[in-house]
Every structure is written in structure tokens, then in C-alpha cells.
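call fold(seq) -> C-alpha cells
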Amino acid sequence: MTADKIAVLWRGDREARRAATPRNNRFHRVFQELTALGIHAEPAVYADHMADEVSEQLLTVDGVLVWVDPIHEGETRTVLDAMLRDVASRGPWISAHPDVILKMGVKEVLHRTKHLGWGMDTHLYRTAEIFQVEFPQRLEAAGPRVLKQNRGNAGQGVWKVERVSLGPRNVPMVRVLQARCGSVPEETTLEAFMTRCEAYLTPDGCIVDQPFQARLPDGMIRCYVGADKVVGFGHQFIKGLIPPPPEGADSPAAQPGPRIMHGADDEPFQALRAKMDAEWTPQMMEVLGIDAGSLPIIWDADFLYGPRTASGGDTYVLCEINVSSVFALPDQAPAAIARLVMARLTSSAKPAVKTSV
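ret:
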């Protein structure tokens, strides 16, 4: 095995694999920073039908940086994750390892860590029977809720649900809005909506239930983390779960604002950074059973603004952790990624991945 050799993996077709270079893709800054540290980095464009070919390539490198969403145009990571597990068992380290993703990068983490300072009134449904009994009671008692399927991205399977007036024959009705771009509110019976959501209750799936955050229009803070330290922030005025304007769901006014990137030292985010570095990330690691050497080289935690404190200060509520495909990145992040890769390459101890989830 060649020393200090890294593969950067993302999804594409046969032609994209043939044409890929370190310079002609969106990860070119990462390639540049790795090269600056003397690390050989090569593209590894992946598709399920090329899994064996990509596996052979990955077995010639020391480590693999993976950028693949959990769901993309109907494709999942099932074949990819099996291949990555096999590669990791034969020597190269994988970031993020699929078993770490199953701990950190799923919505269930919101329930497992709800007692931390970033948590809130979060509930979990694993079966249709429990969902049918408990969710209507919670919706009636606690006001608008947000339901989330366990694995997804781009707002897929994330719904705002609120009660509306009873329908004919006193049938409970709800107004629902999915977080996907272009979605519009829909009124339906509570029973019909819950039946639709039962598709998320697969053998390894679940539904996470959280209260809707009234300060959603204030935007979302994406906290970028390199291993166990914050490396930057992004603030964005998101539009998911906010009803579209009169101009329509596809109008410019309905589109999310740009994500404004900030360095890790920028003043508005220092309270959040201190919480993440000193408290919440170490606490999460302990709860999930993840050691420092197994943390993803790059991941992010998305926060909404929670209720203000008595003195008017901000609080922060975790709404998602992204591990599978964290992009775009703050300007400082590619260099931080390269330094973390170098540290992992030079470490004498291989990352120990705990596979129990």
C-alpha cells in the first residue's frame, strides 16, 4: 500500500469516473489542501454498478473521504455502505464509516441526545401501533409538531403538522407541509397523513417527533465540525416548513437565502462554539459510544434558534446532524480537513469503530 494516499469518493456515472481529476470537481479545494501537505489524493467516482471496481481502487489507498447523500434520486447507500464496511475491514480507514453514520447521521440521534443542552421535547416511534396511539395525543396537547424520517436529506420525509378544524363527521384534520423545496401546505385527515408516514417505519427506521420552533424564520446555523472541534459556521434563511409566499412555491421569494459562511472565530457564534467544543460534542460521543479516532473528519450540526432566555439571549436547538455528505464548506474547512487527514495517517493507532447501534 502506497504511503499517504487518499481517495475522495462521490457519486457519479461511468463518464464522470473516467473524466475525474483532482481539479475538475467541487472538492478541488480539498484536493489542493491535501496535496499541499504532501498527501496523494485521487478521485473515486462511485455508482452501484461500479462497486467492485471502486472497491479495488479503495484497497490501494490508506484512507477514504466519502461524500454521498443517504437518498439521491431514488438511490440509497445500501450497496455503498456494504462495500465501505468490507474495505474498512481490510485496512483503509473510512470517513465517515457507515456504522458511525448510523449513530450520528440519522434523526434518531435527536432522541438519544435530547437530554443534552441542545435537546428538546423529542419522542420516537418505532412501530405503527405506537405511532397511532401516541402522536394524536401529543399533537392535541402540545401544538404544531415536526415529524422526521430516520434517514433522508434535502427535506425529504420532514413534515410540519398542525391541527385544523374538524372535518365532516368530526374527523380530525391536519395541515401538513414537507420541508422539500417547492412543497405547499396540504389539508388532509390525520388518519390519512399518519398512514402515509408509516412507510418510514421500516425494520431499521423510525419517526422522530419534535415541537415546531417558532423562531424558524430567524434562520438556521450550520456548525461545521472537524473531528471534535468547530471549524466554521454557516447561517442561512431557510424556507423549509415555512408556507410559500403568494407568488408561489417556485417563485424567487420562496427559495432559501444564500448560506453565509463564517470562520470559527467569528464573534456572533462564540457561545455556540464554546458549547459544542467543551460540552455537547464530548457528551454526544459518550452517549453514542464513539471514540475520537472514529469521529468523521468533517460533519455538521444544524441548529435552530430556540426560545429566548429571560434576559433576551439566544438558545439553540439541534434539528439535524449531517455526516454523509457535508458540502458546501467554509473557507477554512478544506485546510482543516487536510490537517485531520494527516493526523489520522500519522497516528499509530487505527480508528476503532464500535458497530453496535
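The CA atoms of residues 171 and 254 lie 32 Å apart.
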